Amino acid sequence: MAVTEKTPDLAATDGPRLVPARSIRRRRRLEQAVYGAAALGITIAPDNPDLWPVHLGVAGLAALSLSRLFSSTSVYRKIGEFQDSPIGFSLIRACQRTLPLLTGAGVYMANLLNPGTPTWEYLDGTAWALLMGFTTPITHSLNLDALLPTENAPSLETAPAQLEQAAPATYGDYRAMQWANARPTGTTLLTSVTQYQEGAPDFWGIVVAEAGDTVPDLNPTTLAGIFDLPIGTVKLQLIEGSGPGRKLLTARPTLDTAAQQATDPIHRLFNDKLARPNGGAAGMNLVDYRRDPNRIAMRVTAPDNQMIQLNQKQIARSIDYKDLSLVMVETDGLGDGLISIYKTHPLLNVREATLEDLTMAPDGTIALGQQPDGRIGRVPLYDPQMGAITDLYVGAPGAGKSVTLLHIIAAERISGIVSIVADAQDGMSLPEVDGRVYHFGKGIAATAATLAAANDLGKYREKISAENGWGSFDIGNPWPLVNVTLDELNRILSADAVVPRPFRKWVTGLVGDTQSTGRKLGEGIRFAAQSIHLADLGDKDRIRANAKNGTVWLGRTNSSTTQHMARDGVLPPGVEIAPIPRYFGTGGGGAIDAAFHGKEAKHGPITAGMANIINGGSLYVNRTWFARKENKTYPHLISLMESRAIPRLTPQEDLVFQTSYAKWLAFAETLLTDGDTAEGIEQAGAAAQTVAKERLTALGIHDEDEDEDQPSAGTIKDRILDLLAAGPTALKDVRRKMPDVAPGSVNNAMTELREAGHVQPAGNRGVYQLTN
């Protein structure tokens, strides 16, 4: 195809290289100064025979200039058959650049070869400098034009006309000039520029190097920058049958895109619907995709120096999806993301769990269910690097929380982990657990007593570890891993829980103490509730830190507030989660149509077991394995539990836990009934002491210090503040008056109170008082 003769629009071509007028004047003055200095050398140096290095240098410059001029002439002869090549212009430019060197060297040699100092030797150098300074051939060879008119330059009205006259005559000349003016192209030339079709920026051409040289290999970014085209649309490749001195250059900024969009509906969907403004992925780039029978997955990246921004709701709206649950978004919070679009919900049907699913892997995880893309959803029961973990399971009634907990507890029994479980709903949430785990406490009082006994178990392990100098936990050496599961904890800790305030303070203190010390003692803790705030779980900052090592299972909730409270501080900033609907398919327009016509809306199956799982700061959607219900229980889960023996504590630990549980159960029952009065609190303590003594006596154990071990109904920090209310107190005395709390926990609580401004040093070292 012949080259089109259409001249590019003035706005689209750079023509001459536009630079400020001051820069042009500075170049000319610099060139003129060089000529003046050279004229002085031409006059003096030839009369001094000792300056032979200068003589050789002048001769070398002359030879180099002749060689360059000869090379340009050779290239012109080699490719002269290309009629539309700008080679003539390039040859003239080479002559301009070598003119000062060749003429100056000629004057120098004339003076050198004539002995003596004739009068004309003083004139020829000066005449040469004046001529070169007036014409400034090197500056002119750069094809510069002033960006703004100077005092002596044409007016603004006449400047466009002059620029239009200086513009290339053809589209091929324009592209060749862009190539020639680019620094990375060196001395190579772009020839035979041919447009693929009239009016389109797509073209091809031949890049030719000087004789004996090669065309440089340029990366896609450099090639695109030369012609100001999108990266990846300009390519440079070898020509079959030709050497590296000639290469084919193709630029297809529109043809490739059009062909791709014509044959690739996914790219067309992304570019037309999602990447546009307000499309949900505005400005993002589609780098790869895959198509499955029920899913389209798009791998998306953000442009350089930008953060990934994917809006799930806006994406669904852009592709006209009524059911938001069929559009899922994952990001790394930085520059990469994944958009998954499903035809039907992939988690509508999941299989039952197997023994292999619920067996803990070496990394401490089990397979809890299935993710939308078919991957297995894994959650940890233990972290080999960090130790025991803290989990939080939140879900409204019918969200599948209890079934999920049953899978977790079954996995613990299968994997040899001691399960200490309590259900504040009188055991109705987890009836399958009764008799199938080491311990199961039923009811509010039993739940509090279970937590208190687990806390005492941790103190026992802490004491033995300190005596032996152990700083970490090793499963089975000497103790088994223990996980404490507390279900329906909202019945105790929520604001509307019908329990005495001292009872709630006592349980809150136990929660904070247990979850803060259990990591290095092989004692994990799992909180489960319908709605709960992290602040209700004691030290919420520590809960946040520990939850990032464990699991936050966030099923369907009754309010966005509950959802926010559960994930607050656990997810990294900018990562959002989509709420779980009650039924599959409820996001369609059927509900709106039914409301408009006054009819009842149809809905799909319930989404029980669906949850957003947060683990290690990452987020994914998962549905727990299917569990079939018969006679109000789950026989398959019961069968899985009973396939292995119940893991138990060591004999010494069993004595500690059972004795402690009996004592604290009596305390909890009395405190729950009469805890609103000081007398009731005293009665609760006395009841606990009586039961403890009876228990120890039955076992043949006598502890003379037992009378002094009175239970307390306050948190560690509250109890410290109560002690300091009597006046300045030494830290060691505070520890002595709180024998039921580990010394390290007292020290940490005092430090946190001081940092919060509630207490301050009282003068002597280790003595504290309340802040006024």
Please explain how this structure is put together.
A 10-stranded mixed beta sheet has the order 12-11-20-19-18-13-17-16-14-15. A 4-stranded antiparallel beta sheet has the order 3-4-6-5. The protein has a 4-stranded antiparallel beta sheet with strand order 7-8-10-9, with helices on one face. Mean pLDDT is 79; it is low at 1-15, 79-87, 147-165 and 699-713. It contains 24 helices and 23 strands. It starts with 16 loop residues before the first strand and ends with a strand. The radius of gyration is 42 Å and the shape is elongated. It has 772 residues and is of the alpha/beta class. A hairpin with a 2-residue loop joins strand 19 (610-615) and strand 20 (618-624). Helices cover 41% and strands 16% of the residues.
Number of strands: 23
Using only C-alpha atoms, the radius of gyration works out to: 42 Å
Strand content: 15-25%
Shape: elongated
Tell me the number of helical segments per DSSP (H or I, 4 or more residues long). 24
Percent of residues in helical segments? 40-55%
